[in-house]
Amino acid sequence: MNDIHPGATLGQAVTIGSFVTIQEDVVIGEGTYIAPHVTIMSGSRIGKNCQIFSGAVIGAVAQDRKSAALNTYVEIGDHTVIREFVTINRGTVGNTVVGSYVLLMAYVHVAHDCIIEDHVTVTNAVQLAGHVQLYHHAVIGGMAAVHQFMRVGAYSMVASKSIVRKDVPPFIKVAREPLCYCGINLVALQRHGFTKEQWNSICHSYLLIYQSQLLLPLALEEVEQRVDHTQEKEMILSFIRSSHRGIVKKIIPM
């Protein structure tokens, strides 16, 4: 038996399993699959051809004292997979957004006001606090925890069981405790067909940022002047310069 409110809008060919609850003011795109025992609450906007597995709860009000009076939404793009017991909360100052072609594995929590861009992978039991932003093609390892207001850059990789207390710039791997830079995410560059010019720009930039003896502002000036102009270089500089809480540090000797 399902509980589907007549005020919900379902696209064509939506498949709904048993014991599903869909409240009013919910929109679900065509071709989406909803497994048994899923709860989709008011204010949820789900795209086309998504897969939502058993036990997921989407659109609950934020676990935050200031959330009750605000009219906000959860927005989920197309072709996104939400595995078992994932929870995604509505925002408090804006919408919580999950992009297209995202994979949220089992037991992931996406708190209020998070923004997850396209093609992100968040593995099992990751916990995202409020206002976290994950840029496109980022990968978060299992059981990691991301502190509120943190950002994880495009094509970056966060190791399993990490605690993210600083911003993670694009194209890098981070691990250890406290979290630190552990090199370029070469696997991502290979998988996504980066050119030799792009590789050189990324590697040269981070050589100056993390492996020189320069203070960060001076290292960024050196990147600006010495590294060939590419979109990747501009992504790195823009991300770091816009960081309000600082970036992860270089490798600390054991």
Characterization of the model:
- The protein has 254 residues and is of the alpha/beta class.
- It has two domains: 3-134, UDP N-Acetylglucosamine Acyltransferase, domain 1, CATH 2.160.10.10; 188-241, Up-down Bundle (Udp N-acetylglucosamine O-acyltransferase, Domain 2).
- The chain has helices at residues 186-191, 196-210, 216-226, 231-241; strands spanning 3-4, 9-10, 15-16, 21-22, 27-28, 33-34, 39-40, 44-46, 51-52, 57-60, 74-76, 81-82, 87-89, 96-98, 103-104, 109-110, 115-116, 121-122, 127-128, 133-134, 139-140, 145-146, 151-152, 157-158, 163-164, 172-175, 180-184.
- A ten-stranded mixed sheet has the order 3-6-9-12-15-18-21-24-26-27, with helices on one face. The chain has a nine-stranded parallel sheet with strand order 1-4-7-10-13-16-19-22-25, with no helix packed on it. An eight-stranded parallel sheet has the order 2-5-8-11-14-17-20-23, with no helix packed on it.
- The model has no long low-confidence stretch (mean pLDDT 96).
